[in-house]
Design brief:
Keywords: Membrane, Transmembrane, Transmembrane helix. This is TIGR04222 domain-containing membrane protein. Residues 273-284 have a biased composition (Low complexity). A hairpin with a 2-residue loop joins strand 3 and strand 4. This protein is mainly alpha-helical. The chain has 10 helices and 4 strands, in the order H-H-E-E-H-H-H-H-H-H-H-H-E-E.
């Protein structure tokens, strides 16, 4: 069987015996098809009706807006606001009290901060929280409520689009000469790249998008502000700046361990243990406990 004849501008025989005037429009459709499948398929999955659901809390809003990292930030903001966690001027986090919050995910964030023993920043806490089972449970719950797109069908759509893209490349390689092969697949590559924008957080349904919009116009505390806009939205500008401090060069500890809490100053904006605060303030709120910090700390906008 004779091999395929290279395309020409006329109506002579082409690939599979089709004339160029027929094959070229078909190939143009194939070039666009992978992007159409991925884009339209994702939009159809997003239109799932979630039905009635309870308003998402700050941690749930954080997961909808930015995935596990934003959910961790929202939980941390809530702990700071409640005075359960303190932050130093260098961004070091420490816990107050001896019992974790009842909520599973918030409790896991509090325990992670406690394990850091006053040396971890938000960057280490995020790393420690990656892959936690609490996030999978949260994702499943939000998916069941119709706020997130199911991952199974979404993976099927993306794989189908990728298979179609590979098919376009193979057809172009077999059909076109070496000099024009790149030109033939270039439109497909450009379309794929231009439309392949990284998603902000998990794939939300239209119901999930509506929940975020409703939360953005509803008054809330620090946890909700951070859930919707990140740590820079923390109401106390000093604390926000401390939380956004660059990560330290040391690697985070990845194993849970025991040990007494290390010494040092955990109060926001205060010096080391025993240093004098004087009349200075900590992140917009004055240090308590007299003229000496004594290792004490300023809360995150609220006290016990």
């Amino acid at each position: 069987m004779a091999g395929p004849v290279l395309l020409s501008l006329g109506d002579g025989p082409a690939f599979w015996g089709l004339p160029a005037s027929t094959f070229l429009p078909v190939f143009a459709v194939l070039v666009v098809l992978p992007v159409l499948v991925r884009t339209l398929g994702s939009r159809l999955l997003k239109r799932r009706d979630g039905g009635p659901h309870r308003p998402p809390g700050p941690v749930e809003l954080g997961f909808l807006a930015g995935g596990p990292a934003r959910a961790t930030d929202a939980a941390l903001a809530g702990l700071l606001e409640q005075g359960r966690v303190r932050v130093s001027s260098s961004g070091r986090l420490s816990t107050t009290g001896g019992r974790a919050p009842a909520d599973d995910l918030t409790g896991a964030v509090w325990t992670s901060v406690q394990f850091g023993r006053g040396t971890w920043t938000v960057h280490e806490v995020r790393t420690e929280m990656l892959g936690r089972a609490e996030f999978e449970q949260l994702r499943d719950r939000l998916t069941g409520e119709g706020l997130l797109v199911e991952r199974g069908p979404m993976r099927v759509v993306r794989r189908l689009a990728m298979v179609l893209l590979v098919a376009v490349v193979v057809i172009a390689f077999v059909t076109f000469p070496h000099g024009t092969f790149v030109l033939a697949v270039l439109p497909a590559g450009l379309l794929w790249t231009l439309t392949d924008r990284p998603a902000r957080g998990p794939a939300r349904t239209t119901t999930g998008d509506a929940a975020l919009r409703a939360a953005s116009v509803t008054p809330g505390g620090a946890a909700r502000d951070v859930a919707l806009g990140g740590l820079s939205r923390y109401p106390d500008a000093g604390i926000a700046q401390a939380l956004l401090s660059p990560p330290p060069p040391q690697k985070p500890r990845r194993r849970w361990g025991s040990g007494s809490s290390s010494g040092g100053a955990y109060g926001y904006g205060c010096g080391s243990s025993g240093s004098s605060c004087g009349s200075s303030s900590c992140g917009g709120s004055s240090c308590g406990g007299g003229s000496s910090c004594g290792g004490g700390g300023c809360g995150g906008g609220g006290g016990d």
